[in-house]
Amino acid sequence: MEELNPPQSATAEHELSNGISKLTLKEQKKLKRTPEPKLKPLQRSLELDPDAGNFLLPHDERYDNLDRLSESYRDILEGVGENPEREGLLDTPKRAARALLYFTKGYEEDASEIMRSALFDENHDDMVIVKDINIFSLCEHHLVPFYGTCSIGYLPNKKVVGISKLARVVETFSRRLQVQERLTKQIAHAITEALEPSGVGVIVKCTHMCMVMRGVEKPGSSTITSVMLGEFRNNPKSREEFLNLIKN
Fold first, then answer.
1. Which residues form the domain of 97?
2. Contacts of 10 (CB under 8 A, 6+ apart)
3. Core-most of 50, 123, 131, 229, by most CB within 10 Å?
């Protein structure tokens, strides 16, 4: 009787076993104990968005809800009297779902971890300011954008942070459903907790589309919020210096 060939998987397993057995004992031990590389907590995989050319999107657990979100946007289109089957709207639910997940990517980021990744001991106690950091966020009341700038100042207490991390913290909190008052406070407290500085000042100036394109419809209006902590709250001279520097 003709002998049957072993299954392909069994053959591959046999070859792998033979290959390992040919290694020296030292090489076999090294192979077994080599750990898998661990990803950094903030490192994310990227996936290609087929609806936006080569635009790369961060992928996180929330993207598992993409189909459900897309169906919700389809219902919205029908609810406002549109036909989601017409050519211009065929891919709109999926595009809108992906956009919303990107607009709210701050939920997957940890501001304290961002700050801790670039803290440095430094004998410096003069004011540090980063001004006019762009902000794009979504009002949690109407889900329409508000946008503007954020200026940050702090008085170091023997410790400084990489200045790009201040912009990253602003991005983390603004890429969530927000109100401007809470956004300003979250930025200030995140810096205070990570750096333990002598003082922190944060000023946010934004235009709210819920006031521009609906409701009172007042183009040109802007909202300014501020949070002053430590020396910036208790010492008028420090506060005045900060306010003068961000104006000039």
1. 46-103
2. none
3. 229
